[in-house]
Design brief:
Structural class: alpha/beta
Radius of gyration: 20 Å
Helix content: 25-40%
Strand content: 15-25%
Order of helices and strands: HEEEHEEEHH
Number of helices: 4
Distance between the termini: 71 Å
């Protein structure tokens, strides 16, 4: 029943959907990296929306990949048309248990099994205005640099200590 597809998900169902989304995401990330694209997950956009994956090519072309893990997930989400303002190409990505005919024909379609992915339908190209491209590229670069720095700090506790902590550590290792 269509009405049933709009019921709120239980905590267990949300967790399972989130796990499936992470598997789809991993497969798509592997595909995009194999195509020499830089990929950022969970990127905030200037509209206040958040894109599941933003991919940047060496030519500066931007694609957004919206991940959908169920029919209900697709039906309740009406924000995806806004993503067209922030990319040159818009794709949906899903897994084999979701019927592919629910996705709009004017968007690209990617099928992921968690280990890899395949583009089943390429997305039409809708070039962004130059000012939008520049702003989005700068946002992409800034977010990527900040995440890299945070990852470095998380991996190296000496990077996040105070000066006094570092001096104390250096004296204990003499």
């Amino acid at each position: 029943c269509i009405r049933d597809s709009f019921r709120p998900l239980s905590a267990a169902a949300r967790r399972a959907q989130s796990d499936r989304a992470m598997l789809v995401r991993r497969g798509v990330q592997r595909l995009m990296m194999a195509q020499a694209l830089s990929v950022l997950p969970e990127m905030p956009l200037s509209s206040g929306r958040r894109a599941d994956l933003v991919c940047l090519s060496a030519k500066g072309e931007v694609s957004i990949v919206e991940i959908k893990t169920s029919i209900a997930d697709f039906r309740v989400d009406r924000k995806w048309p806004d993503y067209r303002l922030h990319c040159d190409q818009l794709f949906f990505a899903t897994h084999p248990d979701v019927p592919l005919d629910i996705f709009p024909q004017d968007c690209g379609l990617i099928l992921s099994d968690g280990y890899g992915a395949e583009i089943l339908r390429d997305a039409p190209l809708h070039r962004m205005p130059p000012a939008t491209r520049k702003a989005l590229t700068l946002r992409f670069a800034t977010l990527a640099a900040n995440r890299l720095l945070q990852a470095e700090w998380a991996a190296n506790p000496y990077m996040t200590g105070s000066r006094d902590d570092l001096v104390a550590v250096s004296y204990t290792h003499l």
